[in-house]
Amino acid sequence: MAIRALIFDVDGTLAETEELHRRAFNETFAEYGLGWHWDRALYGELLKTTGGKERMLAHIRNNAPATRPPEDAIPAIHRRKTARYVELVAEGALALRPGIRELIEDAHARGVRLAVATTTNLPNVEALCRACFGQPADAVFEVIAAGDQVKAKKPAADVYELALARLGLAAHDCVALEDSLNGLLSAKGAGLRCIVSPGPYTEGQDFSLADAVVRCFSELPAIKALENALNPDTKEEDNGR
Ligand code: XBP
Ligand code: MG
User: Which of 21, 46, 149 has the most ligand 1 atoms within 8 A of CB, as the residue to mutate?
Assistant: First the structure.
């Protein structure tokens, strides 16, 4: 089945962003005097909850921190965190994961359409594209399904279903690229083939539902390589090139 579109996850897939998100969260918590500090271990746990606002609520409900802002203050705190994250991204703190740029360029060259399906929000996607591609997000991706545009975040299928609807394509025409179990479940829930490349926070999760798992996206620098990864039995014999 020819691939008509690639649908990329953002955090952990386009770039390893979670350490920068964690820094933006912690700096914002300090600004608000919450006395919260999410270290790597705690953040790794909290990442099981997708969405920054939902993650803060999960921290309050599951870890009962000494200081608990009223739940209706969470959106404002998250807006401040987003503003801080956008500043950090604009300072050049992020790099695309190896292979992502080459794959996107090859897709553009071959007329394979490009979309995003992410839990993070639009300002964060825009900041990453400007910093890492030197272009606005809509110059790189035809469709961007993000954050609060859907009621249920990953692992629910909503955000991938939204991307498919906006592309006007069926799931079998597209391939999702992900880094996490939540993302994989979301893509599979929408009926998509999904290739996973785990990152530092998602290593060791159960990717048995993935159509392919690669150590690094640099193994997929072109559409042909991606097709081979999805159909290993039909892989063209390598004629020694
Ligand atoms: C990963 C997420 C996001 C980010 C933080 O999104 O779950 O919540 O961790 O971004 P993706 P926000 O689907 O791209 O892997 O604070 O904007 O939610
Ligand atoms: Mg991700």
Answer: 21
